[in-house]
């Protein structure tokens, strides 16, 4: 599925990402965690083709983000930390506007799945309202709906649980679990280590652009750490400059 191979990124002569390698397969639910400034958002943006890499290769099912952009982007969906909306539109209008950008045929082909997702996220009763009236949780759900319009195989989410109430967090996590169980994959960045520990199958830890660890979440306790938080803190301290 997703392959990140030996990726480097420098911004204003500062190394942001150094020799990053990740491999995400169908059924994986991966948390990308790290201190502030570790390079998480930069990594997300490079995976989505929003930021170019200096060196390396990123592919999705063999399609290159750099050289086969259309085929690549057809396979991935993105939920940014702060999504953009035309807030004077109703939710259903913005959803249809975004769907039209993908093409009428794609919307028709995926309409049943789109409706299923709307109901799964309990958004149908809100789609007739203008977006500026939405809560943060409703906006996050709408952003998730938009990311899933073209039924991507990989969903990339930057800080998906920030500022959300417990019921919204539960609804999003529940949907994402079912999405992964269908043979798709999820990559999230998060500061919520407890959520990552109990929700994600794999954890990748970044610090200063270096990948310190990438492994199955269940293996962390086997290495002597009681929690992901304890493992994370100890690993980061061991790698302080």
Task: Provide a short characterization of the protein structure.
The protein has 241 residues and is an alpha/beta fold. It is built from 8 helices and 10 strands.
Protein model, in words:
The model has no long low-confidence stretch (mean pLDDT 90). The chain has one domain: 3-Layer(aba) Sandwich (Rossmann fold). A hairpin with a 2-residue loop joins strand 4 and strand 5. It has 8 helices and 10 strands. It is of the alpha/beta class and 241 residues long. The two termini are 34 Å apart. The strands form 2 sheets. A 6-stranded mixed β-sheet has the order 6-7-8-3-9-10, with helices on both faces. A 4-stranded antiparallel β-sheet has the order 2-1-4-5. 35% of the residues are buried. The radius of gyration is 18 Å and the shape is globular. It comes from Shouchella lonarensis.
Properties at a glance:
ABC_transporter-like_ATP-bd, 241 residues, alpha/beta, Rossmann fold, globular, four-stranded antiparallel beta sheet, transport, single chain
The helix content is 25-40%
The rough form would be described as globular
Number of helices: 8
Name the CATH superfamily classification: P-loop containing nucleotide triphosphate hydrolases
Q: Which range does the strand content fall in?
A: 25-35%
């Amino acid at each position: 599925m997703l392959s990140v191979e030996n990726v480097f990124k420098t911004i204003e002569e500062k190394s942001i990402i150094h020799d990053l390698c990740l491999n995400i397969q169908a059924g994986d639910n991966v948390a990308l965690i790290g201190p502030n400034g570790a390079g998480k958002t930069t990594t997300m943006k490079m995976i989505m083709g929003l930021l170019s890499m200096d060196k390396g290769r990123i592919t999705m099912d063999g399609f290159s983000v750099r050289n086969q952009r259309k085929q690549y982007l057809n396979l991935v969906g993105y939920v940014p930390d702060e999504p953009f909306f035309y807030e004077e539109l109703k939710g259903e209008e913005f959803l249809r506007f975004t769907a039209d950008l993908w093409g009428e045929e794609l919307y028709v082909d995926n309409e049943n799945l789109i409706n299923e997702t709307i109901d799964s996220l309990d958004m149908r009763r809100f789609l007739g309202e203008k977006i500026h009236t939405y809560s943060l949780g409703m906006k996050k759900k709408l952003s998730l709906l938009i990311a899933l319009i073209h039924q991507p195989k990989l969903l990339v989410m930057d800080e998906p649980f920030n500022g959300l109430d417990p019921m919204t967090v539960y609804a999003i996590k529940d949907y994402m679990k079912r999405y992964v169980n269908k043979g798709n994959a999820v990559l999230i960045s998060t500061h919520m280590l407890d959520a990552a520990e109990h929700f994600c199958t794999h954890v990748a830890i970044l610090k200063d652009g270096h990948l310190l660890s990438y492994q199955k979440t269940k293996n962390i306790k086997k290495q002597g750490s009681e929690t992901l938080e304890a493992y994370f803190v100890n690993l980061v301290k061991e790698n302080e400059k």
